[in-house]
Amino acid sequence: MVPYAVAVPAGFVLIWQLIKRWYPWIPNDIAFLSKMIKALRTMAYYRKKDIAVCDRLAEVAKSTPEHPAILYEEEIFSYGQMHKLTNQYAHAFRSLGVQSGHKVGLIMMNEPHYIAIWLGCNRIGAVCSFLNFNLKSKSLLHCIDLSEIKILVAGCDPSILAIVELLFTFTKRTTAKFEALAPLVGRSCFCHSVCYYLFLTDKASSEDIPRSWRGDVKHRDPICYIFTSGTTGLPKAVNVDNSKCFAGAAILGFAEPKPYDVVYTSLPLYHSSGAIIGIHDNMMMMIYCLLPGCTVALRKKFSASNFWPDCRKYNVTIVQYIGEILRYVCKQPVTPEDRNHSVRTIVGNGLRPDVWKQFLSRFGAHIHVLEFYAATEGNVGFINLPNKFGCIGTYSPLIRAIGNSPIIKFDVETEELIRDSNGRPIKCPPNEPGLLVGKITNSTRISSYKGKEALTEKKVLRNLFKQGDAFFNTGDLLMYDDEYRLYFCDRVGDTFRWGENVSTNEVSDTIADAGGIKECNVYGVKVPGHDGRAGMVTVVLEAEELDGASLYQHMVDSLPSYARPLFVRVQDELEVTGTFKRRKVNLQNEGFDLTKVGDDKLYFMCSEMKAYVPLNDEMQKKIEDGDLRL
Fold first, then answer.
1. Tens digits of per-residue pLDDT, 90-123?
2. What Rg value do the Cα atoms of the chain yield, rounded?
3. What sign for the dihedral angle of Cα 436, 378, 529, 494?
4. Model pTM greater than 0.85?
5. What is the pLDDT of residue 49?
6. Is residue 283 scored above 60 in pLDDT?
């Protein structure tokens, strides 16, 4: 007889082996769900105790005050220092009249004070509006107006001061706007001193802030606005609360950071790149570093040539990325030091398979790629925990059942759901791209847009599978294969991505103001060797010929570099659908290929000539071969 103590464990081992053979995805699912449950329990605890992001910083600062929180250039900011600096900003804002519920605009490059300013607002219940310093005057002023800010804090970097000067000049040309901003100018928010934000804390106390200063602000009230281009119009402000911060930051938890880990980040802190596949919010990643009390190596601005030197300098173990920055890193000259680093994990999204393969081959196959999918305002996410090449996670039957995030059939030409005879959506089988939607419940809610209730509602699909249900429309096409590996395919709707997410409607409105353009249709096109899609516009002209120099100057003056169309196509008339929507699919497929556009004229945005110039075969080949800088 086999002893009972031996037989039972052996039986479990046998059953487990059979389960893994029949359902090979089960071990990955268990690992994923265990980490997710741990994160959810942590978030539930914070919500129950009404712990804010700033409170977590205070906890770590009191337990390990000397532990490095941020490594920045040649400086080391400890948790104790960051906590005191946060308190100083909170006291300074109170002295300027900022109260609970007020809004503070923040436009700065990456630096430790950015974190302290935000959490200083957090400590007194104020909402911090993260402003994108790449935006032009009109868009930036829109974000300021939408935020309803009481004061605007600008960084001391010369490029930031130049932006603020231009913004101030722009407001003078529009009296109403200038009148609205006059109180801000009176408070010296449009600072001319390179020490302005430091001056805020010059005489401020570092004493702890009483909880009462937050007023009745709760865990799920907004603590910051993150702007996203979305699919239509000017930038929109997503209401982000403490719960959303902790939830977004939990992505880093899958890398299992310890206090001795150093996380390297060079993406702008305002960033919510609603990217090819959703959010990659830099600030949320930084917040998760507070949970285990690890260290952040922060760079003011991304530099491909300094990427690995920084990693070696700071002994980095975890790197935050978006696909584009790793492509730039891979284009750097090969050196004997390529594998001389301590990086064990990279966390991010938008990593193309070719760059993925090249990165691991060159810098170390041991590096774990935690590619993920999520959205700033959304309620659905995936992560490549099993480290499978090219995918964003798994989509097993168990994950589908628990996650309530079906992939449904979608007609990209009409941009409509494909429904069955009963009017219900059809779930996609393996290897067929479809629209990802996430079920909205009390525990899987979505974030709203500030002042845009109608717009928030547009992101919701109601009565899909049964009467009364509601699903978040991600606007993304995903696909899973026969082994349940999940892949991102494309973005639906009026956006393209060239470094950042761009609203085609905003670009169209800008082009319409250029003069000489009767109609235009903006879209993104693929460029060999580049991530995302470059901007392209098809126009109908009022004149016989395109004024390439004038249009070029208008684009440079009106749009950030990533939003400027690189290609222009001229047609006699635009093709529209039966419901008068402008067709883009054929235009996207034809792109800037001279062999496919017939008699239409194509132009390329040439920075050397400062004009849109006619595209010829030689230029097209150079672009496709990567010999012409874009």
1. 999 998 888 999 999 998 888 899 999 999 999 9
2. 25
3. positive
4. no
5. 80
6. no
Residue pLDDT, tens place only, 456-497: 677 889 999 999 999 989 888 999 999 899 998 877 766 777
- 69: which residues sit within 8 A by CB, 6+ positions away? 60, 77, 78, 79, 81, 82, 112, 289, 290, 295, 296
Q: Output the six-digit token pair for 594.
A: 């001279």
State how far Cα 59 lies from the chain centre. 28
Angle at 258 between CA 253 and CA 259, to 5 degrees: 125
Which token pair is 462?
């109601």
Alpha-carbon distances, residue 201 vs 90, 135, 172, 208, 303 (angstroms): 9, 28, 30, 14, 30
- Which pair of structure tokens corresponds to residue 612? 């849109």
- Entry field: residues in the chain: 630
DSSP conformation letters of 169-222: HHHHTSHHHHHHHHHHHHTT-S--STTHHHHTTSS---PPPPGGGGTT--TTSE
Tokens of 168: 């101030």
Would you state the structure tokens that stand for residue 491, as one six-digit string?
């973005």
CA distance 465 to 474: 17
pLDDT score of 178: 35
Paired residues of 439 in beta bridges: 471
Q: Of 286, 332, 306, which Cα lies nearest the Cα of 114? A: 286
CB atoms within 10 A of CB 12: 10
d(CA 511, CA 624): 26
CA-based nearest residue to 274, from 220, 226, 329: 226
